[in-house]
Amino acid sequence: MVSDAAHGQLTVTLNDGRELDARVVSTAPERDLAVLQAEGANDLRPAAIGDSRSVNVGDQVIAVGSPAGLQGTVTSGVVSALNRKVTVSGEPRSPYTQSSTGETSYRAVQTDAALDQGNSGGPLFNANGEVIGINSAMYSPSSMLGQSSGSVGIGFAIPSNDAQEYLNTVAEES
User: Fold this and answer.
1) Is residue 171 assigned to a domain?
2) Residue 29's domain spans which residues?
3) What's the burial of 40, exposed, middle or buried (CB within 10 Å: 0-12/13-18/19+)?
4) Mean pLDDT, range 137-144, rounded to an integer
């Protein structure tokens, strides 16, 4: 969880195996977003950010993450729905309103690309290689019993425009 990110030493592992120390620049636990700065990461090229308002149901997407610690895992699928209201119990998780019941609700890009535990925080790319979302949650029918199964083809991503709005706010405050 992002709320835990502000505490302790962080290490970022790159796809080539390099491990870099990192520090938290800013967090928004209510949005489950954080900005990290990796030390000595001068040779990295940032991913292009796409406009999540231009995403359509049926668009091809690619999700990247580290489910079960398997770094650089790639899955693909389509956008299944837009502006899908997602409600997550417990600690606040995304853009984003908290109800009086301790649940957080937000509007998400829904995809059938397989998302499992460990995909959260990874990018959801469109067919042009632009980030149009940040993988944030998955539906798991057994989660109601306090357990979690794997992907059932219902995953959710924070729209890139919502994440970009937060990043712009962080940049203005710096």
Assistant:
1) no
2) 2-46
3) exposed
4) 66
At 79 the pLDDT is 97
Per-residue pLDDT at 94 = 37
pLDDT digits (tens, 9 = 90+) for 82-109: 998 887 665 444 333 444 444 566 789 9
pLDDT at 65 exceeding the cut of 80: yes
Do 125 and 92 lie in a common domain? yes
**DSSP letter for each residue of 47-111:** PPBP-GGG--TT-EEEEEE-GGG-TTEEEEEEEEEEEEEEEEESS--SSSEE-TTSEEEEEEEEE
Helices (H) and strands (E) in the chain, counts: 2, 10
Q: Are 147 and 119 in contact (CB under 8 A)?
A: no
Q: For residue 87, what pLDDT is reported?
A: 73
Q: Are 32 and 92 in contact (CB under 8 A)?
A: yes
Give the type of residue at 148: S
Residues 39 and 100 in one domain: no
